Amino acid sequence: MTHTADGLVALEAQLRQDLEYLELPAKSWVPEHQYKGVPVRDVVVIGAGMCGLAAVAKLQLSGVSNVVAYDAAPAGLEGPWVTFARMETLRSPKSLHGPALGLPQLTFRAWFTAQWGSDAWQALDKIAKDQWMDYLVWYRKVLNLPVQNNVRVTRVTPVDGLLALELSGAQSGVVYARRLVLATGRSGLGGFAVPDFLSGIDRKFWAHSADEIDFDALQGKRIAILGAGASAMDNAATALENGAAAVDLIIRRKAMPRINKMTGIGSQGVVHGMHLLADDWKWKFVDYTASTQTPPPRSSTLRVSRHENARFFLDCGVNSVKQQENGLQLNTTQGALYYDYLIAATGFTNNFHGRPEFAAIAPYIRSWADGRYNSEMGNARQSMLEAPDLGPSFEFRERTPGECPLLAHIYCFNDAAMLTHGKVSGDIPAVSAGADRLARGIIASLFAEDVEQHYASLQAFDIPELQGDEWVDSTPLLKQENAL
Ligand SMILES: Cc1cc2nc3c(=O)[nH]c(=O)nc-3n(C[C@H](O)[C@H](O)[C@H](O)COP(=O)(O)OP(=O)(O)OC[C@H]3O[C@@H](n4cnc5c(N)ncnc54)[C@H](O)[C@@H]3O)c2cc1C
Hints:
This protein is of the alpha/beta class. The protein has two domains: 288 residues, FAD/NAD(P)-binding domain; 113 residues, FAD/NAD(P)-binding domain (3-Layer(bba) Sandwich). 31% of the residues lie in helices and 17% in strands. The strands form four sheets. Strands 3, 4, 5, 6, 7, 8 and 17 form a seven-stranded mixed β-sheet that branches. A five-stranded parallel β-sheet has the order 9-16-10-11-12, covered by helices on one side. It has a three-stranded antiparallel β-sheet with strand order 13-14-15, with no helix packed on it. Helix 2 packs across helix 12. The relative contact order is 0.13. Bound molecules: flavin-adenine dinucleotide (FAD).
């Protein structure tokens, strides 16, 4: 595959021209605000992964220019792609528009074709995960997005109608924001979902699949992987490729899920219609897909099963885990199994109390368990009950009205929004639609909050369009005629 840098230069020129044709970015329109003499940000976005970048880009293009995204990760290492994502390629088809926000020149396809040509595009099967990261790095650069890396938001507190954000890392201290977007990724508001039987087990014997794992150290070891999703396969394959002696997939289900249901019915109807459905329908869709489960990609599963020392144990629920001197004893429904190390590919949780930075607001966040769910909707699934009960633009709602009104200024633009909003704030296919919905909500709310200033601007605006010499007042003539 021959690479040409000139193609990218030309693409960037074309993108600049398209933006100019569309008068983008729109002129900056939000009045400046200060708090105790310090400038206030109109919007702060926590996280500069794909969702954070799309959110910042959409806001900036819409003339909300006083915006910044903070990411704890170093530049180029945001999100899972080159850190804990252990697959070889994306699951998604290469042609998805992703965060392109309706701009053809911003798509992965345009970026790829500009550098490697149309034949290479035709020949490409799936997007390599590192290449997806390279694309996101370019996306940020070409749109000149305001992102500050190596900055962790450690605490969010409501103060005098604003949100005070404590920062640590490359920038420390407190910044104030009028609106806050949580683009914090898969773990959303919670953290890792870890089965109870691992509590109390020394961390030297186990990791979560999204942890940093030293696979070299697992050479020659017997590894158990809990789960049968994409991450289970990716971690199993990585362990096998790094010389693990044996890898067992411990799968509670009797059969592997084989059909990717939600992807199967993907359409613009789902993207734009799901969030407007009645709550019982939303519940039904998410409950059904949670019960049928998403299968791991075929290629990821083959990447595991081609190793002779890989085994798939189905109908194998773990009842308890016993820590031994040099490993773990898993007491399963199929009997006792012994391992040197375990990787829990058990996903993430929406439990708001799992993230220290949100501890000050977590108790006030209304979830579906707080009255939005009723038993007639279907199974009382814990992960769904914990989902935040969001407003139409991803904004949080209060559990008890009046206790934390500023929650309405905090937007949950991450995976935890799925039950209320559909899959528009986590996966690649519909992230642009999500960013659009989010930006419209923020724009409307900033405009409404500043309405007096906008009205004052309307009154103060005094640049005449007519100079006064374009016409003659004929009323005196009319008076004369009437007098005759
Ligand atoms: C292993 C894996 C593979 C996936 N593969 C696909 C796929 O093939 N196709 C698809 O459509 N989707 C896929 N997804 C789902 C989804 O596209 C990704 O999770 C994607 O990264 C979501 O983007 P995001 O911006 O929401 O979150 P992330 O990319 O995770 O970004 C969140 C960012 O927030 C930052 N952050 C969090 N808290 C703080 C804080 N307090 N202060 C500062 N920064 C903070 C983190 O450092 C991180 O960079 C995959 C997910 C995973 C985990």
